[in-house]
Design goal:
The chain is an alpha+beta fold. It has one domain: PAS domain (Beta-Lactamase, 2-Layer Sandwich). About 45% of the residues lie in helices and about 20% in strands. It has 6 helices and 5 strands, in the order H-E-E-H-H-H-E-E-E-H-H. The chain has a 5-stranded antiparallel sheet, sandwiched between helices. Strand 1 and strand 2 form a beta hairpin. About 20% of the residues are buried.
């Protein structure tokens, strides 16, 4: 068994956090943002400081808030280990963004839930076909998103596993 010290684990975590292909956010028990990675901030068009003054409910589409709150509450009390759902965020500019959300608890070394990790991937296929893209960069992004859509299950499995590793790291650092 290879033993990795905590400083290497922290470096790995920081690298994953900053460079993840999905948006990541840490949420407290009241739904407030504790932290969010650059991709999540870009997706919802808020800076980290702006998100830290908000709750996930405040940027969730009104039609999706109830289901999200119910399922998040179940994970927060340990009734569910995690959940996934399609939902909509409202960006800072008012744009609707469809995402696939996965929520997992971050568990402390004593077994208590420290916070929740939200992992989000934008669902490009829900954009109406009438919208066209003229920039080559957007075309490349769509090709990448086609790949993500094709392999989304494996990506979420990897991210879910990563959340477990991060949770274990928090337990051991605790």
């Amino acid at each position: 068994m290879i033993i990795i010290d905590n400083s290497i684990k922290q470096i790995a975590f920081d690298n994953i956090w900053e460079n993840s292909i999905v948006g990541l956010a840490l949420i407290d028990s009241d739904g407030r943002f504790l932290n969010a990675n650059p991709l999540f901030c870009s997706l919802v068009e808020y800076s980290l400081a702006e998100l830290q003054d908000r709750t996930y409910q405040s940027i969730t589409h009104p039609d999706d808030v109830k289901a999200d709150v119910v399922m998040t509450g179940r994970v927060s009390i340990g009734e569910e280990k995690s959940f996934s759902m399609k939902k909509r965020y409202l960006t800072k500019t008012g744009k609707v963004v469809w995402v696939l959300l996965q929520v997992n608890p971050i568990i402390n070394h004593d077994g208590s839930i420290v916070c929740l990790m939200s992992q989000v991937s934008e669902l490009i296929d829900l954009i109406p076909p009438s919208i066209t893209f003229s920039k080559p960069k957007e075309s490349i992004n769509l090709k990448f998103m086609d790949w993500v859509k094709k392999y989304w299950f494996f990506i979420l499995f990897f991210i879910g596993s990563l959340a477990g590793v991060i949770s274990e790291a928090f337990k051991r650092l605790g």
